[in-house]
Amino acid sequence: MEDEVLVKRVKAGDKHSFEVLVKRHERKVYNSAYRILHNSDDAMDIMMETFYIAYTRLPSLKIEAKFGSWLIGIARNLALMRLRSKKKEISIEEPEVRKRLSVPFDDEVTREELKKIIKREIENLPHKYREAFVMREIMGLPYGRITKELGISQSNAKVRVSRAKALLRTRLMRIL
Known about the structure:
CATH class of the largest domain: Mainly Alpha
Number of domains: 2
Largest sheet: none
Strand content: under 5%
Shape: elongated
CATH topology of the largest domain: Rna Polymerase Sigma Factor, Chain: A
């Protein structure tokens, strides 16, 4: 059965047809992610996330026959974002990071503890601020892409990132 027919069936509520699509495309999606990430665990995560996103966004797919290339596009974008985020992991030793945080480093707070604190505080941000902050500051996405992903205006995206930074700064100063 063609992808186009299966996609139409999924749109009509047939979940089994989506399982058929997953089985048909899982190897291609995995390989696409693996070529970018060179890590089987990350590629598997991307594959699973790709199918989740595809399932939730399938109603917006206009041309059912393009399902395979649409799926690979999702996987590539996710893999590239994962790669960027790994490259941009915060290095506490960088002088610029120390300066930005304005946190005095003493012997009591180890680098690992500080990383955990920062990660926890990012996770504790309100969802709408965390989402915009992670996309901009961790993934390095341009505001134009953030506005498309979140369905908000560019000025709203900038406000959310700014408020997230202010909240983080306040919380980190209080903790440290």
